[in-house]
Amino acid sequence: MNLPPAGRTTEDLLAEVARLKEHDLPVRGGQVTAYVYDTGRAEVNDAATRAYLEMLEVNCLDPTAFPSVVEMERQVVGAVADLLGGGHGIFTSGGTESIMLAVKAARDQAGRDRPNLVLPVTAHPAFHKAAHYLGVEVVALPVDLSTYKVRADDVAAAIGPDTVLVVASAPSYPQGVIDPIEEVAAVASAAGVPFHVDACVGGWLLPWLREAGATVPPFDLSVPGVTSISCDLHKFGYAPKGASVLLFADPAMRRRAYFASAAWPGYTIINATVQSSRSAGPLGGAWATLQALGRQGYAELGRATLEATTRLRAGLAAIPGLRVLGEPESSLVAFAGDGVDVFVLADEARARGWFLQPQLSYAGIPANLHITVTGVTLAGVEAMLKVIAESAEAARERGPVVLPEGLVELVAGLDLDAVDDASFAELSASVGVDLRPGAGQPEMAMVNAVLDALPPASREDVLVRFLSVIYGS
């Protein structure tokens, strides 16, 4: 992109934004079952948008300069603490940042030379990212393949003298099940190790599902031994993206998440988050969303979400060749195929206007498709099931993806550091996955089948190259 010789009008710019978004997945209506969360209430979105814009240019870097930041954050964090058993919190940009700060606080408090954190294989990759950035080793544990939950006995056996943090999920994203929080908290507490509950998805969902009649076990800071918990408000809080809260049971632990530096002659540096300068727009949007919905609004959304999830699970069970994995205790549902290639099913559904999120096989868990049920899903759950049934039948007729002979071995054996982006793009195009500019949206079944056949380390290398090619120079 070159800068235009003169400034362009707002109308011209917005017209180009609309053109650029032409092939984006829709963010409203419930046909995209990942990445976006929709209340189906236009007035709530409008309130959040207006408050976001009002706070857009306010800088969270210095709360003494902008006291509105302090008051809004106190109210937002206080609402989350009230719902999740108390605690002392930080407003962050999302689950990854909340998780990174939780790992930093635990690492700094322990002061180990070779720190590690213990977690199930179903824990979100944000913990691996945090460990990578912060120099912490990950000890990953298998889950019970009938329940997809980590076993407390396995956690107890894995805790060692250098363990600085134990992690479990409420729920884990892949299958929507809640790890045995009370049991894991007990073994972590007995070992004197902090215990973080990743409730980024469930923190602002599970209490409302419980109120709607679902059976939800204790999972928050009210459980003895839970020392921190993360809760995203841009998921089931329905706030605009960039809104999460990290709560600590102990305010001293919260201070470990902070960063301060006085070793320079400039302005005072004290940060509660990874970012320094950051817009207060997401904070304003989150505050307004909570205020616009209130307890009644969230309770209504919880009831609708629970009903939609119940209908979805029953409907999936009635479609030949599909089976729900585990017993989801939230509104995240994953299903695998028997005689149906789920990656082909996903492409067929997308051709019909619906996005279902593919998940690769790992640690004994089969490849599957993931659906996040939100407040708007109930209105379209029967239409979704109809599309899934049609797509499953079409996938059965097409048959599974057939990979070119020797392709997986070729990709696994490549030294990708020796292959430039142009050559990688040509290799992808040769097997029907054309990522070059102007080629359009490729079907993803072949991509996912290749990734699924590769070991995890090779998957990661290939994904990095895909991203590099897509963005180009």
From TrEMBL:
Cofactor: pyridoxal 5'-phosphate
Protein keywords: Lyase, Pyridoxal phosphate
Residue ranges that the Swiss-Prot or TrEMBL entry lists as coiled coil: none
Keyword Lyase part of the UniProt annotation: yes
Single Gene Ontology BP annotation: carboxylic acid metabolic process
SUPFAM superfamilies recorded: PLP-dependent transferases
Alphabetized GO MF terms: aromatic-L-amino-acid decarboxylase activity; pyridoxal phosphate binding
Modified residues (N6-(pyridoxal phosphate)lysine): 235
Oxidoreductase found in the keyword field: no
Pfam families registered for this protein in UniProt: Pyridoxal_deC (PF00282)
Family listed: Belongs to the group II decarboxylase family. Sphingosine-1-phosphate lyase subfamily.
Name assigned to this protein: Glutamate/tyrosine decarboxylase-like PLP-dependent enzyme
Native species: Nonomuraea fuscirosea
